[in-house]
């Protein structure tokens, strides 16, 4: 999709004619382009040079805005109503999809889509959240918030992939697991915890990509893998900025401050070592050029599958578990890193608690305790 077409394919809040709040400068330029095109069509004057200048200005402004997004603005882009969903990527880059339904226990949760598919030369098991496109579908899918049966369905399909030696591809896009009474009664916490355990030792490659929202345990339920990546304008967090602000400051008005503190953007999480890769998006976000975003995602998935399928199963499991074990790190001197203005990864020692015997940790702590002065 070209730049000219993309300029008009921006849908968002109705009050801004589809542009997001921070895109107001783009709205004014787009209105100028529309007015010039209308005048050219009605009067018959050739205004192509002026229209071309406005479009160049639109692209330059778009680039300037998206090069300096705040964390809250990144959240808004990730929630864009026209952002491609898992079924969109399924249609754009996968072939021969054969959907598999049900969890063999309760029902079929439409918030998670599963099935066999082909990606390039690979046969894979596709698993992804589905938020829905229109009101009816969103209600059916609970806006992408899965029940326990959704996570059990996903796990059954992963185990089926393990049986037939198929890689698993997970596309994560959810606010979180469904928080209703029925979900709690049917064991949502247990379902997610079981998925975390089983995915950590599944004997087949797993690739996970956060394509939009990565919300709390709902994202983690299908988010444990050999490689975990994020699209450039996606976010991944233990809680939403609004939820965090409501808990800490008793008002959602502090959501921008919460988004900054949560370090939820893709570049921040890559810097902290919590995700392996940031997949670039087209200028202005995936919603402007879905085909280009899908092509970037496809290249990443194929590259990772080429690497993972060369490994032996035992090596795959060992590396995955080592990766998970080293996610919990502590910093020797974070204040010094901040004071020197250097990345924490370059100035700190990151050690897994699991790699250090408990007795050694206790002895190390005891050695740092200063005796009290006796008077």
What's the SSE blueprint?
Elements: H1 3-7, H2 24-43, H3 48-66, H4 71-78, H5 86-93, E1 95-99, E2 112-119, E3 122-129, H6 135-140, H7 148-163, E4 168-174, H8 181-185, H9 188-200, E5 206-215, H10 216-220, E6 227-231, E7 235-237, H11 241-249, H12 255-262, H13 266-271, E8 277-279, H14 290-308, H15 313-325, H16 334-340, H17 344-347, H18 358-368
Parallel strand pairs: 3-4, 4-5, 5-6, 5-7, 6-8
Antiparallel strand pairs: 1-2, 2-3
Q: What does this molecule look like?
A:
The chain has 3 domains: 3-68; 78-325, Alpha-Beta Complex (2-enoyl-CoA Hydratase, Chain A, domain 1); 334-368, no CATH class. The protein is built from 18 helices and 8 strands. It has helices at 3-7, 24-43, 48-66, 71-78, 86-93, 135-140, 148-163, 181-185, 188-200, 216-220, 241-249, 255-262, 266-271, 290-308, 313-325, 334-340, 344-347, 358-368; strands spanning 95-99, 112-119, 122-129, 168-174, 206-215, 227-231, 235-237, 277-279. Helix 5 packs across helix 14 (290-308), helix 7 packs parallel to helix 9 (188-200) and helix 11 crosses helix 12 (255-262). Residues 1-15, 345-356 and 366-375 have low confidence and may be disordered.
Characteristics:
3 domains, 8 strands, 375 residues, alpha/beta, disordered C terminus, 2-enoyl-CoA Hydratase, Chain A, domain 1, eight-stranded mixed sheet
Number of domains: 3
Shape assignment: globular
Helix content, binned percent: 40-55%
Residue runs with pLDDT of under 50 for 5 or more positions: 1-15, 345-356, 366-375
Helix/strand structural class: alpha/beta
Count of helical regions: 18
Distance between the termini: 79 Å
Order of helices and strands: HHHHHEEEHHEHHEHEEHHHEHHHHH
- The third-level CATH topology of the largest domain is 2-enoyl-CoA Hydratase, Chain A, domain 1
């Amino acid at each position: 999709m070209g730049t000219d077409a993309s300029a008009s394919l921006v849908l968002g809040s109705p009050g801004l004619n589809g542009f997001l709040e921070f895109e107001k400068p783009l709205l004014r330029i787009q209105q100028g382009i529309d007015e010039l095109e209308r005048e050219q069509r009605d009067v018959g004057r050739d205004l192509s040079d002026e229209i071309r200048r406005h479009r160049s200005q639109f692209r330059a402004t778009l680039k300037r805005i998206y090069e300096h997004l705040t964390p809250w603005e990144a959240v808004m882009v990730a929630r864009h109503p026209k952002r491609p969903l898992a079924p969109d990527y399924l249609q754009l880059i996968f072939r021969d999809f054969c959907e598999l339904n049900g969890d063999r226990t309760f029902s079929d949760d439409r918030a998670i889509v599963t099935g066999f598919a082909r990606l390039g030369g690979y046969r894979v098991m596709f698993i992804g959240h589905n938020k829905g496109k229109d009101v009816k579908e969103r209600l059916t899918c609970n806006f992408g918030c899965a029940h326990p049966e959704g996570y059990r369905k996903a796990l059954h399909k992963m185990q089926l992939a393990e049986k037939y030696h198929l890689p698993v591809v997970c596309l994560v896009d959810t606010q979180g697991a469904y928080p209703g009474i029925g979900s709690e009664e049917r064991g949502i916490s247990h379902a997610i915890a079981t998925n975390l355990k089983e995915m950590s030792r599944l004997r087949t490659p797993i690739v996970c990509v956060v394509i939009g929202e990565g919300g709390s345990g709902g994202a983690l339920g299908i988010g444990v893998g050999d490689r975990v990546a994020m699209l450039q304008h996606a976010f991944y967090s233990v809680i939403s900025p609004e939820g965090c602000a409501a808990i800490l400051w008793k008002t959602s008005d502090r959501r921008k401050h919460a988004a900054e503190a949560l370090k939820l953007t893709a570049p921040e999480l890559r810097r902290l070592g919590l995700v392996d890769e940031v997949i670039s998006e087209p200028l202005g976000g995936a919603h402007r050029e879905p085909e280009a975003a899908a092509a970037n995602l496809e290249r990443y998935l194929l590259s990772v599958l080429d690497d993972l399928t060369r490994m032996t199963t035992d090596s795959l499991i060992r590396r995955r578990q080592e990766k998970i074990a080293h996610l919990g790190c502590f910093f020797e001197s974070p204040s010094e890193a901040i004071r020197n203005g250097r990345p924490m990864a370059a100035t700190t020692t990151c050690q897994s608690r699991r790699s250090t015997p408990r007795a050694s940790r206790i002895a190390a702590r005891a050695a740092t305790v200063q005796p009290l002065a006796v008077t």
